Inverse folding.
């Protein structure tokens, strides 16, 4: 995509490897909120094929001020009002390619207000999702479950049903729908092989599990937290989360996650472990 100059003298363009230093500097403004995009950037070096999407940049007076990741998710980063207008205009023209818009509350709310007429209706809007962090030096305040460990490659088929159940419960649709079975299994297998899938497995079934879904610059993001429904309310998830933090800290010193504000039980668990809120995300689901 060629650069597009607007009346505000800003330029929107697809970024590539030569932009890596500027992109990393922009992401470093908030490593927690920008963990997902940073993970894509760090693993791909801004090679579009390896990144699984495009990273758009908005430049004003020669300075990179805003980013928008466009892949399976649409993720805004540090967007200025001018950048939001330019990003939204381009998104309207190319049509919706993503299954969700997710990111900092203000960025998502404004982008969605500009895109709703052409991209809507949304299947669901999660307007308030606390972003929570436990920093490198913060103690884990609960006893950890030593039976929670890294999942082995020969246990992928045991882990998969729990991952599907969690995703379906959380998002409202199965990740296997519409031809998604093979890509979803490949994603879970990748997490297992990289040592980023954790679970307590007994007698061939998953009791509790979680994954580190993104690894940014000094920060990782825990996703997919799940306990078997028939075992909830027994404190298993609390102890499991304590162990997940310990295992995740072997990947990066700071551990983050985000959670729906209406999930009071989960929020209470994370607070007891030692997480605290640093920002608020929103998600628009299609």
């Amino acid at each position: 995509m060629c650069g597009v100059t607007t009346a505000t003298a800003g330029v929107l363009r697809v970024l590539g490897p030569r932009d890596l230093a500027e992109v990393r500097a922009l992401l470093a403004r908030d490593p927690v909120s920008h963990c997902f995009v940073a993970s894509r950037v760090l693993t791909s070096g801004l090679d579009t094929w390896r990144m699984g999407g495009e990273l758009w940049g908005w430049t004003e007076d020669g300075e990179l001020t805003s980013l928008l990741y466009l892949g399976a998710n649409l993720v805004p980063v540090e967007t200025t009002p001018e950048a939001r207008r330019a990003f939204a205009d381009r998104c309207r023209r190319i049509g919706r390619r993503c299954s969700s818009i997710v990111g900092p509350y203000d960025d998502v709310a404004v982008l969605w207000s500009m895109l709703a007429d052409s991209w809507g209706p949304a299947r669901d809007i999660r307007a308030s999702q606390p972003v929570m962090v436990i920093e490198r030096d913060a103690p884990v305040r609960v006893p950890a479950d030593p039976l929670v460990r890294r999942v082995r490659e020969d246990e992928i088929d045991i882990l998969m049903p729990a991952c599907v159940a969690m995703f379906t419960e959380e998002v409202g649709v199965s990740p296997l729908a519409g031809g998604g079975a093979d890509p979803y299994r490949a994603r879970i297998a990748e997490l297992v092989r990289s040592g980023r899938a954790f679970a307590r497995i007994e007698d061939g079934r998953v009791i509790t599990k979680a994954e580190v879904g993104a690894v940014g610059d000094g920060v990782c993001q825990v996703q997919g937290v799940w306990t078997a429904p028939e075992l909830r309310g027994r404190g298993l998830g609390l102890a499991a989360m304590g162990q997940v933090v310990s295992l995740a800290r072997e990947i990066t010193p700071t551990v983050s996650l985000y959670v729906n504000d209406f999930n009071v039980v989960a929020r209470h668990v994370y607070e007891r472990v030692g997480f605290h809120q640093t920002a608020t995300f929103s998600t628009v689901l299609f």
